[in-house]
Amino acid sequence: MSCSSCSTGKDGQPRGCKNNGTCGTDGCNKLTVFDWLSNMSLPGGEKPFDCVEVRFKNSRKEFFRNSENLSLSIGDVVATQAQSGHDIGMVTLSGELVKVQMKRKKVDFNDLELPKVYRKASQKDIDIWQKCRDREEEIKKRAREIAIILKLQMKISDVEFQGDGSKATFYYTAEERVDFRQLIKDMAKAFGIRIEMRQIGYRQEAQRLGGIGSCGRELCCSTWLTDFRSVSTSAARYQQLSLNPQKLAGQCGKLKCCLNYELDVYIDALKDFPAQDTKLFTEKGLAFCQKTDIFKEKLWFSYKDDPANWHVLSPEQVKEILEKNKKKEKVASLEEYAVENIVEIEERVVFENVVGQDSLTRFDKPKRSKNSRNRNRNKKRKGGNNQRQKQNSGQNQSKKSTSNNNHRNKNKNANRSKSRPKNT
C-alpha cells in the first residue's frame, strides 16, 4: 500500500503528496480499505459483485452500481452519476468486500435507484477536474470575504467542486442558524456556478483540515479515527486531570477524543478504590480524601483542621477504617496507619555507560557564560605569566651565583700567585 507520490525526493528529503490524504495513488489515505480478496478468483459460474466504492475529496465516499460491466480496479478514476451532470472520483474498493461495506453502512445493494458509474474518466475529464481543484483555494478565500462583508456569523472551512465544474459545495461551521440566502446569490453571481451550502460540526472541520496536536503527532481524526464518540468532562475527572479547558480542548475547540482512550482502564481500576468523597472519622478529627493514585494504589488523607499535612493510606486500610466507622467506632489517628506505609527510598537507577554512550544528564548542566570563560582564561594567563617570571628570576639568580663564584676563584688564584717566591 505504499504511496508513490509520497516517496523521497532529491537528497533523501520527503516529497509528500500535500493533498491531506487525497493523493493520486490512494496509498496514504486513512479511509483506504485493503482488498484481501483481490488475488482470489471467483468460483465457477459466479458473477462479480456489480457495485463499487468511490471516494471523492476528503472523507466523502459513496457506492455506485457498475451497470456497464466495466473492468474496474482500485485506483481507477471514473465518471459517476450526480444530481445534475457528472462527478469525478476514484475507485477505492471493488468485489465482494463492497457488499460488506454497504451492510456496515446500512446501504441496500438491491436498490434500483443506486447511482451508476458512467465510464472511466478520459483525459479531458481529468483536466477539467484538476482545474476545478486548483480554483478551490481562491474561491474559498473570496467566499470568506463576501461572508465578512455580509456580517454573517459563520466560517467557511472547505470548498468541493463537482467533477464537471458546474457545482461547488461550501462546508461551513456556525454556532447558530445562519440566513445565507444573500450569500448564495452573491457567490453565484461572482463565480458563475451553482452553490450548495452544507453545515458540518467542529470535529468534522478539524478532520477535513488536519493539523498537529499538542502531543506532537497528527490529529487522530485526520489520520485514522473514523467515528466520533461523545467526550464529557467526567472522563477527565476519572483520570484526575485538571479541568483546564485550554489543556483539555483540541484544535476543534471540543474536548480531545484521546480522553476516551484510557477511560475504561481507569474505571476498572477505580472499582477497588473507595469513593473520592470518602470521610474518615477519627479521635483526632474528621479526615478528607485529597488525592488518589491508582498506579501506586495509594490515597492521601488530611484532617479538616490541618489540610496541609497529608497522610498516605492504602485502599485496604481505608476500607478497614470505614468498616469501623459503620460500627460507630473511631480510629485513634491516621498516623497509626500512615507509619506502616513508610517505605525506604528506593535507590535511584544509575545510568551505566556500558556501550560507550553519552551521559543522559549531559544537557542538564547550566551553560557557562562568556564572562566566566574570559575570567578563567585571564586567570590561566596570569598564572602562566607568574610561573614564567619565577622561572626567569630563578635563572637570573643562578647566573649571578655562578658569576660570583667565578670571580671569587679568580681572586684566589691571583693571591696564590703573589704569595709564591720567584725563581732565582
Summarize the structure.
By secondary structure, the chain is of the alpha+beta class. It has helices at 96-104, 123-149, 181-191, 202-209, 220-223, 233-238, 245-248, 263-270, 315-326, 335-340, 370-419, and strands at 51-55, 61-65, 77-81, 86-94, 117-120, 155-161, 167-173, 194-199, 279-281, 286-293, 298-303, 311-313.
Characterise the protein shown here.
The chain is α+β, with helices and mostly antiparallel strands and 424 residues long. Helices cover 34% and strands 16% of the residues. It is built from 11 helices and 12 strands. The strands form 3 sheets. The protein has a 5-stranded antiparallel beta sheet with strand order 2-1-4-3-5. A hairpin with a 7-residue loop joins strand 11 (298-303) and strand 12 (311-313). Helix 2 (123-149) packs across helix 3 (181-191). The longest helix has 50 residues, at 370-419. It is extended and about 90 Å long. The chain starts with 50 loop residues before the first strand and ends in a 5-residue tail after the last helix.
